[in-house]
Design a protein that fits this description.
Elements lengths: L4 E4 L18 E6 L7 E6 L8 E7 L13 E4 L6 E2 L6 E5 L3 E8 L6 E4 L4 E7 L2 E5 L2 E5 L3 E5 L5 E5 L5 E7 L27 E2 L10 E10 L2 E9 L4 E6 L4 E4 L18 E5 L2 E6 L2 E2 L13 E2 L4 E8 L12 E5 L4 E2 L5 H5 L4 E2 L2 E7 L4 E2 L18
Parallel strand pairs: 6-8, 9-17
Antiparallel strand pairs: 1-19, 2-3, 3-19, 4-18, 5-26, 7-8, 7-30, 8-15, 10-13, 10-15, 11-12, 11-14, 13-20, 16-20, 17-18, 21-22, 22-29, 23-28, 24-27, 25-26, 25-29
């Protein structure tokens, strides 16, 4: 993130002696990106973060994609797909490429292990449910509408509250940040940005664990899942400071940009990463030119695939879509509003739709098992 934070106890100067009450040293860890030229934080542990007692390869996490088929628009009913489980092992994947993997999960069970994704940053969008994310940087409470941004290499576990829960999971192989055009050269969000630093929540409390025993950290790296056993609790940080840490932004705090005539999708952009952007469609006023057509015009995805995950509301340009639907509109062919939606939008003043959109700049592939929840007639739905 583009602003500095500090939690817990840290020494006055970095890389200097920092002792516990018994005279032994805390163990300093520098955690950064881009080979010491990106953002970083410095953490102080009770134990060396390298002290493992057992290491094992658990499984191959690489996705099995379908064979190339006809180029067409796709629609998946994810509410039929997600099986109740935890926030990691319960992920059911739908789409992916070398830059991103997209899944859904129903995290109704507490993880009985800890996890770190060492392949890239993650965004966990909370469609339903509340709970807490316990991380090496501290604990964050989450609620519906939250984007939980988890930096690469962060050790964490999700502890859900009882009740219904659903996540949209976006795993990248790069760093997720705010759109560059909304930041000045210092990293501060500018006045025309649809949100600002006041809307961002970092860890709320740093819980330092000194427990001894057997603790498992599962690490995803290079497309494989590994198991590392520690004889101490992995969340043993007594203090940290820096610019790298998990944070939350709620979609309800996104302030939509509107205009007299229809505005293009980049106005909805919320995050960016390598070869992809994440956008938020939120309740907003429609265009206010007296002859405006509020629905989007037909457009060709010349160089990007478009994914829409429908959270709630009545999406103005679509038919046959329900809460939890996910659509893929691939590059190479045009897409746009369903029959009757253009005419129906004229004169309307506002929309209550809520959706998350991803545009990827390399083609996405469909995971084989996602075919089980596909609406195979969606590609013909513009004929109605």
């Amino acid at each position: 993130m583009p602003f500095y934070r500090q939690m817990g106890e840290i020494p006055r100067k970095r890389h200097t002696i920092f002792r516990k009450q018994d005279g032994s040293l805390y163990r300093e860890q520098v955690m950064g990106t881009k080979g010491f030229s990106g953002i970083q934080s410095i953490l102080y542990h009770h134990n060396p973060p390298t002290r493992i007692v057992h290491s094992a390869l658990l499984k191959d996490c690489r996705l099995a994609y379908e064979e190339q088929a006809d180029l067409c628009h796709r629609h998946f009913f994810t509410h039929q797909y997600a099986e109740p489980g935890d926030a990691v092992e319960g992920r059911q994947y739908l789409l992916g490429n070398d830059d991103v993997q997209i899944a859904v999960a129903q995290p109704v069970r507490q993880m009985d292990y800890f996890y770190r994704n060492s392949d890239g940053d993650e965004v966990l969008f909370v469609h339903a449910g509340t709970g807490r994310a316990e991380t090496m940087f501290g604990t964050l409470r989450y609620q519906p509408g939250d984007y939980i941004v988890m930096p690469v290499g962060t050790i964490y576990r999700i502890v859900p509250d009882p009740g219904e829960a659903k996540f949209l999971v976006i795993e990248t192989t790069s760093w997720i940040t705010t759109p560059k055009r909304y930041r000045n050269h210092h990293g501060q969000l500018l006045e025309h940005s649809p949100f600002c630093e006041r809307d961002i929540r970092g860890p709320e409390v740093l819980e330092t664990h000194t427990d001894q025993g057997e603790y498992e950290v599962r690490t995803k790296s290079r497309g494989f899942l590994h198991s590392h056993l520690f004889n101490h609790h992995p969340l043993d940080v007594v203090g940290w400071d820096g610019y790298l840490y998990p944070w939350i932004f709620n979609i309800g705090d996104f302030e939509p940009i509107t205009g007299r005539i229809h505005m293009p999708p980049p106005i909805h952009q919320t995050f960016e990463a390598n070869n992809l952007v994440i956008c938020s469609f939120v309740p907003r006023m429609y265009d206010y030119h007296p002859e405006a057509i509020p629905t989007p015009y037909y457009h060709s995805n010349v160089d990007s695939d478009e994914v829409l995950y429908y959270v709630k509301g009545n999406f103005m340009s679509r038919k046959g879509i329900s809460e939890g639907s996910l659509t893929l509109h691939p590059c190479g062919i045009p897409h746009g509003p369903h029959p009757g939606k253009v005419e129906a939008s004229i004169g309307k003043k506002e929309t209550q739709e809520l959706a998350v959109m991803l545009d990827t700049f390399r083609p996405l592939r469909v995971v084989k098992q996602a075919q089980a929840v596909e609406d195979t007639q969606y590609k013909y739905s513009w004929n109605a």
